């Protein structure tokens, strides 16, 4: 365990900073989500839709004023890590992040959401075997650490669906899969939804991409022109279902549709869908090699 100064180890510093960041994420939505909710409220005309959006805004104000979570389901904490191969504290990271969840559980506080499978008891700590979820990407020639921290709720992005289509199903098959999922269970999460779609080679590659798609800022587009065009077509299609806020009907169903993709085997099209809800609690933080940090998802925050 490396020491930053005489008193505080690097592991402690990461634990403390990320623990506080988790607490903040549970209360304050990221800037892009807040902005999109305001935009969507303006587009609705029905009084019921407007009232529901207003209650979401009130909820957010009160979460900050009363220091309470934005939603009672504070989810399973998931970390999507881009860690530089030269980040000096790489070896301490997994333990530091796990400890940060424990800290946030006590201090934020977070609901107890970790049940050990087969033994079927709640650990009461939000940590357990393989939990929190940590997804690693190692970045060559970098000494930085980039973290997407996400609260995955039981009604939104812990459910999800993935399958492998025959290649003849083509992009029409992907579209049908996505729309079938959205009309079957999309409403299970509280709309307006952020829809993540993974298009890849197998169930597991598509599934991870569909979740990573939800870490992208709202309003961003897939760099591939055709994929970006499909994002727009799917968004229009899902909006035409008319879910509206909280599924009580309205003009718009989604905050956006994000597709992430990789190459595929000629014989397969892996596809997956994951839906984030209106209380899409994620945060993005970057540490340098001295553990100075920058938060890009929430402006004006110091932990
Ligand atoms: S879908 Fe989202 S807002 Fe609705 S209960 Fe679950 S976490 Fe909360």
TrEMBL record:
NCBIfam families: PRK08230.1, ttdA_fumA_fumB. Belongs to the class-I fumarase family. InterPro entries: Class-I_Fumarase/Tartrate_DH, Fe-S_hydro-lyase_TtdA-typ_cat. It comes from Trichococcus pasteurii. Tetramer of two alpha and two beta subunits. This is L(+)-tartrate dehydratase subunit alpha. It is an enzyme of class 4 (lyase). Its EC number is 4.2.1.32.
